[in-house]
Every structure is written in C-alpha cells, then in structure tokens.
Amino acid sequence: MNVRRLIPTAALAGAVALGATALTACSGAAASGGGEDGKLAVTASFYPMQFLAEQIGKDHVTVTSLTKPGVEPHDLEITPKQTGQLGESDVVLYLKGLQPAVDKAVAQSGVKNVVDAASLTTLEAHGSAGHDHGHAPEGEQGHTDEHGHADEHGHADEHGHDHGKGEAGGDPHIWLDPTKYAEVAKGVGAALEKADPGHAADYKKNTDELVGKLTALDTEFKDGLKNTGSKTFITTHAAFGYLAERYGLDQEGISGVDPESEPSPARMKELQELAKKENVSTVFFETLASDKTAKSLAADTGLKTDVLDPLEGITDTSQGADYFEVMRSNLKNLQKALGSK
C-alpha cells in the first residue's frame, strides 16, 4: 500500500526578504500612491491574501481580489482588464507558485511594491510516506506524490499546476497553518508600512492584533486535537499538509490537487483499507468543489461525510464569514471526525 502523507523537508530559505517586494493589489488607482479616495490601492491574488490586506490595512487601504468568490484559485485565468488594473496598483500581494496566471501577470505588471507571501515563511515539500504513518525526521527528502504535490525541486504536477517552483519551493497552502500565516502577516504589515509610511503606526498595531489572534487560534487547534481516537483524516483536496504536520495528524488525499478528478480504483481500494486500519470515521469534501468522490468513497466504506474547507475563497456556502470562523468550523469538524477526547 502506498499511503501518502505530508512530510517536512529540511528547512528551506528562511529569511524574510522584503526589499523591493510588497503586495498584490488590483484596483484602478494611480501607481504613484493612493487611489482617488486617497487610500492605498492593494490587489490580492486570492482570499487568504485579501484577508491579510484587509485586516492589516483596514481604513487605509482599498483591497481588490483577482479571484472572485466561488472561483477555484488554482485554475484562475486573468482577463486583459485585470492585467491593466494590476499594473495600476500601489501594492500587490500574491503567493508565487499557486496560480501560474497570477505569477505571469505580476512579473509583467511593473508594480514597484510586490509581496510574494511564499518568501515570508519557510515552505515545506510534501512527499510519500510509504507505509509509515509516523512523522518523518527533519531533512527527509520529499518527492512528487500521486496527489500532485511538487517536490522541493519545484516539479509541476499531473494537472499542470506548478506548486513548488519559486524561491523556496514546496507546498503553497501555508495559510492553513495559523503559525505560518502569522509569519506572512508580519511581512505583509512591514510591506504596507514601507508603501505608506504615513500610516505605519496603524499598520504595526493592526499586524500585532492579527498575529495575536492567529496565535490564539493555534492554541485552540493544539488543545482541541491533542487527544483524539484517530490521527488520520481523508480529504478530497490534499491541501492540509501544514495543518496536519503542525498538529500531529496524517492527511490522506483522494484525488489530490484537483478535487474533482476521478481517483483510480486502486486508490479507492487503498483508502477503504486505510479507513479500517486507522479508525477513520469521516471523508471530508470542500465547498468549492464537487462532493462526488467523497460520497462515493463514503458509500463504499460506510463512512460519514463532512466539510473541511481549504479556505481558498469565501462563499454563501462557507461554514463561516471569514478566515477565523471557517478555521474554527474546520477544527470542530476535525474533532468530531477524529474522536476528540
């Protein structure tokens, strides 16, 4: 049985390099500083970046997201209008390696203040664990797995998504680990301070408040998942590597990066056997993708289904109105599925 789990590789590039880098903003404001309303025009590539900009910038920024609610971020295509607006941003905030179309547009935008969130924390490669459900030692090599996660060399997956290429390489789903998300928040705050020095004190205060909330959320997850009947969870979208690694869990993806692709019969059989062995009770699906594969596996194994949201976007069907509400819903659903004691 070739079981997949997320493994940290050796620490990759560590230092937070801001320099000429800043944020992703898509707005019709003048690049010289401030839109028509006098606010800093920030373009964010997708929801987790938008949330940071809004929480840290508050009344001093106008934030526009390139990825509209309900759109799967991995497959985003940028319109010519968006490309033009991107070039007029004061600050652009994106996550290199997650959305190839955004990477290309940002590189061609000519915006002075561009922040790559992937450079603000250490990325990890996620690879195969074979039969091992224990945690691999630090420094173990990660290779491209059947779920489409790139290795530390940045190889693209079978769906054409390049999830590892960039300065550091590795899995881009850093926002699902509150600790890593806090590291990114600090870098975003510093970038806004640099782009708009007149409001630097407010950005610093807002950043500190957000980091405090993320630290509290991390504690909630640690305490809530400390004692569980099982450590393994099955999900359609293999996006929860950082979360699993942070809280001592094992993620098993059905189809990998593309949550709507059909898993092989061999993979379905493997997961059925795994569910019995690891005392798995629930198959998780997400709100932005079809639940067909999750329900199919659940029906074959007599398991329940529930939502584990990768937080790539907020819609009317999300289990919460913002990052914190959805993450707490994820925690509650994990506790229920894993048999929290």
Summarize the structure.
The chain is an alpha/beta fold and 341 residues long.
Name the descriptors.
34% helix, globular, disordered N terminus
What do you see in this structure?
The structure is a single chain. This protein has nine helices and ten strands. The protein has helices at 47-57, 80-86, 100-109, 178-195, 200-224, 241-246, 265-277, 292-301, 323-338, and strands at residues 3-4, 40-44, 61-65, 91-94, 113-116, 128-130, 232-237, 250-256, 282-285, 304-307. The strands form three sheets. The protein has a four-stranded parallel β-sheet, with helices on both faces. α1 (47-57) links the parallel β2 (40-44) and β3. α5 packs parallel to α9.
Provide the β-strand percentage band: 5-15%
Helical fraction equals: 25-40%
How many individual β-strands?
A: 10
Strand pairing plus helix content: what structural class?
alpha/beta
Sheet having the most strands: 4 strands, parallel
Radius of gyration, taken over Cα atoms and rounded to an integer in Å = 20 Å
Mean pLDDT value? 79
Shape: globular
SS element count, helices:
9
- From N to C, what is the helix and strand string? EEHEHEHEEHHEHEHEHEH
Give start-end ranges of low-pLDDT stretches.
Answer: 1-33, 127-168
Strand order within the widest beta sheet: 3-2-4-5
